[in-house]
Amino acid sequence: MTDSIVEKNAGTSITIEGLSHRFAQNPVLDGIDIHLDAGQVLALLGPSGCGKTTLLKLLAGLLPVEPGHGRILLGQTVVAGDGRFLPPEARGLGMVFQDYALWPHMSVGKNVAFALEMRGLSKKECAPRVAQALETVGLKGQEARNPSSLSGGQQQRVALARAIVARPQVLLFDEPLSNLDRDLRESLCHEIGALLREMGTTAVYVTHDQEEAFALADRIAVMQGGRIRQLASPELLISEPASTLVAEFLKLGTLLHADHVPETWRAKGQGRSRAIAADMVDMVSMQHLFIPQSAVTLTHESRLAVHADTSDAVDSLRGEVLAQRYRHGRFTTEVRTAHMPHSLVLSTDTRLSAGQIVDLTLDWQRLRWLPQSI
Questions:
Q1: Cα separation values, 234 from 41, 45, 75, 217, Å
Q2: Which of 32, 109, 130, 314 has the fewest C-beta atoms lying within 10 Å of its C-beta?
Q3: Cβ contacts of residue 310 below 8 Å, gap of 6+?
Q4: Are 315 and 280 in contact (CB under 8 A)?
Q5: Quick one: which of 149, 217, 209 has its CA closest to 182?
């Protein structure tokens, strides 16, 4: 995409207060509260059925907010709730869908121009705006082509051009890259992120892909069961997950149940393996948290390492390699230890054989203690 022609466009803030929604008698959203500053990018991240697309549709005006079930503000304007409802075309939005949603009987140029024509602009006024939008997304001079002649990635670029051509204050994305192959997803994800920051447009991006969310977003809302389980920056989600549910969904490491005995924690089923002195644990993770007799420890894969010298392994955990998988230049390795009920997961740059016995060192001071998810 071409950066030099992108016009800066001040976005608007988004406020969602106490938003709930049902389909028939089935609750889909339960008390959603979000505030997004102007120009920020929010990712709604969660598994299928968690309510993220429903939330996007309510924000877009494609679904009504039922009376008494919350409200939505764009800037200082209530667009849904309090007896008020603005239709999608009155909200100053641009939308990019999973299936591109291009009209097959229209050329690329006419698809992009449609949003401007709906606002009453003449063909003469539309032409330079359409050309600029297509150049921005890397499709300069493609106005006359039929969408069916384009690849999937090119079609999604047309959809993006159509969304930005009217210079909206808010852009909404509903899993726009899920139909593309991995390499193209990564490339377009990077380009969309760069474009959003160049434009300064506020954006909400729905995805079930963690890598997309972490690459694009200033803030991420992890959703499950119609609720936001944690809303935080990508860095905070990794370093301070709010619960076992968040840590497990983000695959941050191994979760182990532990018992609290005076001045000590001991992993359940650990037997004679090392107990963990309370003063050795990262106390930051215990702030605002009542520690019961039993809790859950999160062992991030970066806190574990293969012990270099097995002759000096007093503080190590001995285990058997179960499996490895290669990912982004490193090997994610699963190791089973004798006294722990669950296997441990670590990242290493060394290929290990299944069945190989290894000694692991653990950074005991950087364990995290998490409340049980409800």
A1: 12, 11, 24, 8
A2: 314
A3: 316, 359
A4: no
A5: 209
Amino acid in position 88: P
Tokens of 61: 């005006």
135-171 residue pLDDT tens:
999 999 999 999 999 999 999 999 999 999 999 999 9
- The gap from C-alpha 30 to its chain's centroid, in whole angstroms, comes to 19
Terminal Cα distance for the chain, rounded: 44
Candidates 96, 109, 372; CA nearest to 255 is 372
Output the CA angle 163-166-171, nearest 5 degrees.
40
Rounded distance between C-alpha atoms, residue 60 and residue 238, angstroms: 30
> Tokens standing for 13?
């803030």
Q: Which two tokens stand for residue 268?
A: 């359940």
Which among 190, 203, 134 is positioned nearest to 162, based on CA atoms? Answer: 134
Q: Residues 6 or more apart from 35 whose CB is under 8 A from it?
A: 13, 14, 15, 16
| Contact call for residues 172 and 97 (beta carbons, < 8 A) | no
| C-beta separation of 60 from 91 below 8 A | yes
Note the Cα 142 to chain centre separation in Å. 32
Beta pairing class for 357-362 and 276-277: unpaired
Strand order in the sheet with 294-300: 276-277, 264-267, 253-261, 294-300, 368-370
Question: Is the CB of residue 305 less than 8 Å from the CB of residue 323?
Answer: no
| Burial classification of residue 151, based on how many CB atoms lie within 10 Å of its CB (0-12 exposed, 13-18 middle, 19 or more buried) | exposed
At residue 370, what is the residue type?
L
Sheet containing strand 26-36, strands side by side: 26-36, 14-23, 71-74, 77-81, 84-85
* Residue in this structure with the two tokens 């924000």, named with its chain if needed: 59
Half-sphere exposure of 173 (CA within 13 A, CB side): 32
227 φ/ψ angles, rounded to the nearest 5 degrees: -125, 155
202-207, strands of its sheet edge to edge:
93-96, 170-174, 202-207, 41-45, 219-224, 227-232
Q: Does the global pTM surpass 0.90?
A: no
- Count other Cβ atoms within 10 Å, centred on residue 329: 7
The pLDDT tens digits of the residues spanning 263-282 come to 455 555 544 344 444 443 44
